[in-house]
Amino acid sequence: MKELLEKVNESFAAFIEDANLQIEKNNKAAGTRARKASLEIEKMMKEFRKVSLEASKQ
């Protein structure tokens, strides 16, 4: 679970950086990367939910 949380943090940092570039500099490529990162984060959050539920049952 710790590894998953680290991956989420890395992806979220990349998302924030790219989203800010899109907003501040109207960088379209950064917007594409931010959207891709948001999809990856969504998948990881679903996985975290599964792992967290399993850990709470023990």
Class computed from helices, strands and strand pairing:
mainly alpha
Give the DSSP E fraction (strand runs of 2 or more residues): under 5%
Low-confidence spans: none
Q: Overall pLDDT, averaged?
A: 96
Taken in chain order, the helices and strands follow as HH
How many domains? The number is 1
Q: In one word, what is the shape?
A: elongated
Give the helix tally.
2
Distance between termini?
14 Å
The total beta strand count reads 0
User: Main sheet, how many strands, which sense, barrel?
Assistant: none
Helical residue percent band: over 70%
**Gyration radius, in Å:** 14 Å
Quaternary status of these chains? single chain
Function: Might have a role analogous to that of eukaryotic histone proteins.
Family: Belongs to the histone H1/H5 family. HCT subfamily.
Protein name: Histone H1
GO molecular function, one term: structural constituent of chromatin
Give descriptors for this structure.
58 residues, mainly alpha, 2 helices, elongated, structural constituent of chromatin, Hc1, DNA binding, Histone H1
